[in-house]
């Protein structure tokens, strides 16, 4: 059975303006690969209701799982939750359990209208726990709505991951060598890729103070194939006079 | 006149697998804002021809400019150029000037078939210079095709930017304060945002060893509006008993 697929929506003007370096794509890409729900697409979109609603509806139909980060706080630019409700065509309403958690968390009088928005969710939402700052994320259908702040998002994903049914983990094997030019190994790599069509064989040049080179990374769900492909690449590099080193210098 | 808009396509399995931390989004987002072609969407897509072709055609119709990074090297996983040709429905053929540059660059016999692919482009492409590793990017229509390696991409963008007609630069003003909770300033922020509808007023919590707080960032093309909005936020924070500091702690 093929693995289920994932799409990530990074929602927030701050990434599109260059203000914030995204830190969520790499984390989720890695973790989703490990649980066998490989990430197939990422979209970074602004805090614009029509864009969020249309994008959620497009990608939830195309992928098995959609993960969103950002836009679930208490301020005027936090509009993800109400947009997801609109995308699903369900009411956006008080979630009793989320409401109770936040009401317990805040001092008397502090659970004000902006904070109550964080306990307002699409009807039918299942909570995603937030061990850091209490205000939960939620799942509705195949859409998982999480915070944008990396350590909160990561805590939410830890909680969410336990109830996701993944496929075979995506594993990776790699080899690299200094002074390799991609153009010298390209034909050999094409032949090796052709022998292992289910693997994703990537060629990544690197430029470092310690020297330039190329890393070849094999990713897929078959460890045997990945190891055989990397052995073949190692042989190719050796035959061309390079000194291959096992592993990925970027890992 | 409204500013022209940009979409970025990050093409490459390595970002979707978590192998590589993207470094191109923040660079391009910042530089495009500075030249008045704000980035409105980013998509990270895999090295799959149908996906690249369909996405290029979708976004080139929706945005004034499309920038792509990745997939223009000599190896089997470098398929951006031929996919862009297919998206435009034009032949993918030897580009005489790119060919001449690479032929001069390589030693006799080294300009082999894989490297010749880097001089093969959609008919009608205009070159984007590559001061680092020679192999050029190109522009066809409103699509600008660049390398994925950050320092090569940055060099290409420097060259490309001189021929892009932008709009008013997007500028930014900010203020932040320790111990602020978003929930306490949310209503005040909503009112300030409403007074400056053309500004993008963002609220960004931060969590640091030196203390937690919230930064408010105003972005737009009117410096006067951004300064007035940030002055109003400063007043709001002061009135609530916080000690606002001008500037963005993430900048």
Write a compact overview of the structure shown.
Chain A is built from nine helices and twelve strands. Chain A has helices at residues 13-16, 24-34, 49-62, 80-88, 96-105, 113-117, 150-161, 182-195, 223-239; strands at residues 6-11, 39-45, 65-69, 92-94, 120-122, 126-128, 137-140, 143-146, 171-178, 200-208, 211-220, 245-246.
Uncertain residue segments of chain A:
none
| CATH homologous superfamily heading of the largest domain in chain A | MoaB/Mog-like domain
How many domains would you count in the coordinates of chain A? 2
Order of helices and strands of chain A: EHHEHEHEHHEEEEHEHEEHE
Task: Give the oligomer, counting copies of the same chain as homo and different chains as hetero.
Answer: homodimer
Largest sheet of chain A: 6 strands, mixed
Mean pLDDT of chain A: 96
How are strands sequenced across the largest beta sheet of chain A?
2-1-3-8-7-6
Number of helices, where a helix is a run of at least 4 consecutive DSSP H or I residues of chain A: 9
The chain pair with the largest interface is: A-B, 68 and 68 residues
Query: What is the CATH fold-level name of the largest domain in chain A?
Result: Molybdenum Cofactor Biosythetic Enzyme, Chain A
CATH class of the largest domain in chain A: Alpha Beta
Beta-strand fraction estimate of chain A: 25-35%
Topology:
The structure is a homodimer of 251-residue chains.
Chain A: E1 6-11, H1 13-16, H2 24-34, E2 39-45, H3 49-62, E3 65-69, H4 80-88, E4 92-94, H5 96-105, H6 113-117, E5 120-122, E6 126-128, E7 137-140, E8 143-146, H7 150-161, E9 171-178, H8 182-195, E10 200-208, E11 211-220, H9 223-239, E12 245-246
Parallel strand pairs in A: 1-2, 1-3, 3-8
Antiparallel strand pairs in A: 4-5, 6-7, 7-8, 9-11, 9-12, 10-11
